[in-house]
Every structure is written in structure tokens, then in C-alpha cells.
Specification:
This protein is mainly beta. It is built from one helix and 14 strands.
Amino acid sequence: MFVKLIFLYCVLAATTALAQEAPPAPALPPPSPSSPTPQPAPQPEMLEHWRRSTIAIGLPINGRFITNGTSLLVTVNGHLACILTAKHVFFDEKKGWIPTSVNFRLPKDAVSQEEDIGIPIVLNDSNKTYWSASDDTDLAIIKAPDLSKYWHVHAIYINEFGNSDDIFQGANVVTLGYPMIPGPEYLIYPIARAGIIAWVDPIEPDTRSFLIDSNIVHGNSGEGLSL
């Protein structure tokens, strides 16, 4: 099953360097005659690339990272990337939610002894704004910081996005995000939830909003869908 991500609109800005691939491991010596036959390495999980590209957005409060939403690292060429998310995750003027910075946290493989409060992102200062949004949707892009010092960073490529062929009523979808309900100990990497596409516009399915039936709660805002 090939995983594709679906978004209605995406305006990309190449902003900063992604982490380079870790150097390959040295070749192993050939086994001795008494050694057991080596087994093939396990294949990566279907959702591993998407999971590694899905990051949490939040704020450090009293020494802890409090999740406010989900976002994706998106790249145009494998080296330059931006953060794609829902605008209301970091900017909601009606509710007075206009922070000048937020933190984002990369997925991890295990619970750390030390609290990971994430990587700070400046949204705006007195002279410049570091994010952009569409006027007619809730999607936005944020300038990503330099991630070259972090290992195993992934980002979604443009050709991994879905199109109108992937959007139809009844299609199965999977969401990956950081809902608050399970508790912080489960949010070291995104949580998967299943659903279906419940309704699409019959004339313009890939340019008009569509409805999904899935268990979405606070913290899931900004995530993508996978087919």
C-alpha cells in the first residue's frame, strides 16, 4: 500500500536545510562457517517516513512541553523545508492567541529521562514575519529552523501528496498526530487513528473542502491524512 498525503492547498517556501542522511554503516565481515545464516533486515514500517515527518507544535510551560497541534515537515528538493500546519495552531486573532514564537518537537524512539521542550521557532519580530497563510483556508507554512544537527529527520516530498484520484467518498484514511487525551507519555511520536472520507464535492473533489469521519481531538489540528 503506497502512502499518499492529502491536503487541499499547499503553498511551499523553501526556507532552511534539513538534516543530512546519517553516514552508512561499515560493511560487516563475512560470517565464519560456524556462524548462523544472517537473516534479512526487517523492512521499514509503511508509515515510518510519514511518522518521522510529523512533528508536534506547542509551548514550554513550567518546564514541560504542552502540545497545541500537529504539523508536517515538507520539502521541495530534500534539502530545503518548511513546516506545514493549520494556522489556528499558532495564530487565532479572535481568541487572542498571537504568540511571537512556539516550539516544535521531533518524534523520538523512546521516552527520555529529561523533558524535551522542543525546538523554538520565531514566528515574528518587530521587523519581519516568518510564516505565510492562504486567505481562504486554515493552512499555513512556517519557516523551519536549521535542522542539520538532528539525526533521522524526514520530510514529505511534493510528489508524495495525493490528488483527485485519491479523494473519493468512502476512501479509508489514517491520521497521524499528537492528541492530548492519551497523555504526554504517549506523545514521543504521533498516534495513528483510522477513518474514512465521508463526503466530497462531486465536481471539484481536490479543490473544495471534504469531510472525514475520524476520532479527532485537540492536538490533531494541522495533521495530514494518508491513504
